């Protein structure tokens, strides 16, 4: 019993110490974040989805990437004025994707730095993933903004909305 | 009834053996915490990928968890608060394993955020579960030895 009490006391000590260190460190670290998770609603008012807007680099460009509607995304596609990045994994991309879209899985973002650095930072970029059930497009858009691209939108309707609208795709079912 | 393994754990060699594992586990957790401590925002993003935690808890978890790994790692190395630290580390590993299982079951594919927050980190998958299970067994062995030597101490 004495041993258990001591272990419990030690547990609380470690937890308290970690909490104090963690909170204090946020004031000192260059990449420190606030205690409160900022939440952004993306999509329109009725079907909006809450996603965390994690501040990756608070000292960088704060203007977050914004959502683009199906109509505007399609218009950018038709005029060939934007690059489309598919943020899903390669298997999903291979099974079907927006025509001319480039596969850039969000978890492999750093693998694509050499290619991204070759692009004009003012180039309009539209990211997408499966649809409203995924956040990869938002994450990729945030990474691209952090890298310095000025015109980045995420197309939250994603692959599902684009395909359902009958717009150009490359499909290998 | 003591087994020969219990006798080994009680011996000087058993102590060295478990102390080495304890120090190794401590060093590993300190290493795993550093990148997350430096980049709490990216770590919050890693946690959000699992879609398990309520959104309001994301930042506070990303702030405290890496420091908990760090302090527990130090505790294991300096052999102070070691039982509590070992229990925390075992608990964290169990949570990580369940979270990876859950992400795999839901078909999610992302880097696990286990040892760092960059995309070089391998994705959630069976290998990550095996790694974490190995570490969990190490923590269990340390706890078991404490139990074996307890009556004499």
The count of strands of chain B amounts to: 0
- Number of structural domains of chain A: 2
Gyration radius of chain B, to the nearest Å?
17 Å
**How many separate domains make up the residues of chain B?**
1
- Distinct helical segment count of chain A: 6
Shape-level CATH architecture of the largest domain in chain A: 3-Layer(aba) Sandwich
Element pattern of chain B in H and E: HHHHHH
Beta content of chain A: 15-25%
What low-confidence regions of chain A span 5 or more consecutive residues with pLDDT below 50? 55-62
- Share in β-strands of chain B: under 5%
Q: Overall 3D geometry of chain B?
A: elongated
Helix content of chain B: over 70%
Contiguous runs where pLDDT drops below 50 for at least 5 residues of chain B:
none
Instruction: Please estimate the helix content of chain A.
Output: 25-40%
Structural class category of chain B = mainly alpha
Tell me the name of the CATH class of the largest domain in chain A. Alpha Beta
Instruction: Describe the oligomeric state of these chains in a short phrase.
Output: heterodimer
**CATH superfamily descriptor of the largest domain in chain A:** Rhodanese-like domain
User: Rough shape of chain A?
Assistant: elongated
Which fold name corresponds to the CATH topology of the largest domain in chain A?
Answer: Oxidized Rhodanese, domain 1
Mean pLDDT of chain A: 82
Describe this structure in words.
The complex is a heterodimer of chains A (173) and B (153). Chain A is of the alpha/beta class and 173 residues long. Chain A folds into 2 domains: 1-30; 63-171, Oxidized Rhodanese, domain 1 (3-Layer(aba) Sandwich). Chain A is built from 6 helices and 9 strands; from the N terminus they run αβββαβαββαβαβαβ. In chain A, 33% of the residues are buried. In chain B, helix 2 (12-38) packs across helix 3, helix 2 (12-38) crosses helix 6 (126-149) and helix 3 (40-50) crosses helix 4. The longest helix of chain B is centred in the first third of the chain and has 27 residues, at 12-38.
């Amino acid at each position: 019993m004495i041993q258990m009490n001591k272990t419990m006391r030690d547990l609380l000590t470690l937890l308290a110490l970690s909490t104090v260190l963690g909170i204090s460190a946020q004031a000192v670290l260059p990449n420190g974040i606030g205690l409160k998770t900022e939440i952004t609603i993306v999509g329109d008012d009725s079907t909006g989805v809450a996603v965390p807007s994690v501040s990756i680099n608070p000292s960088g460009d704060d203007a977050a990437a914004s959502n683009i509607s199906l109509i505007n995304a399609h218009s950018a596609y038709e005029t060939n004025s934007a690059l489309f990045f598919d943020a899903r994994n390669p298997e999903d991309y291979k099974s079907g994707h927006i025509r001319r879209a480039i596969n850039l899985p969000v978890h492999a973002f750093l693998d694509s730095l050499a290619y991204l650095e070759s692009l004009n930072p003012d180039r309009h970029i539209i990211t997408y993933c499966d649809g409203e059930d995924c956040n990869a497009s938002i994450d990729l858009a945030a990474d691209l903004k952090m890298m310095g691209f000025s015109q980045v939108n995420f197309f939250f309707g994603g692959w599902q909305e684009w395909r359902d609208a009958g717009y150009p795709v490359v499909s290998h079912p | 009834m003591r087994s020969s393994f219990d006798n080994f754990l009680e011996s000087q060699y058993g102590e060295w053996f478990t102390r080495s594992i304890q120090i190794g586990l401590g060093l590993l957790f300190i290493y795993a915490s550093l990148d997350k401590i430096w980049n709490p925002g990216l770590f919050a993003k890693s946690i959000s990928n699992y879609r398990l935690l309520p959104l309001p808890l994301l930042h506070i978890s990303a702030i405290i968890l890496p420091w908990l790994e760090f302090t527990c790692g130090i505790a294991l190395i300096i052999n102070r608060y070691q039982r509590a630290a070992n229990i925390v580390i075992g608990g964290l590993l169990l949570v990580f394993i369940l979270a990876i299982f859950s992400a795999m079951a839901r078909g999610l594919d992302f880097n696990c955020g286990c040892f760092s927050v960059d995309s070089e980190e391998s994705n959630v998958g069976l290998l990550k579960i095996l790694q974490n299970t190995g570490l969990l067994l190490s923590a269990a062995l340390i706890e078991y030895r404490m139990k074996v030597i307890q009556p004499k101490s």
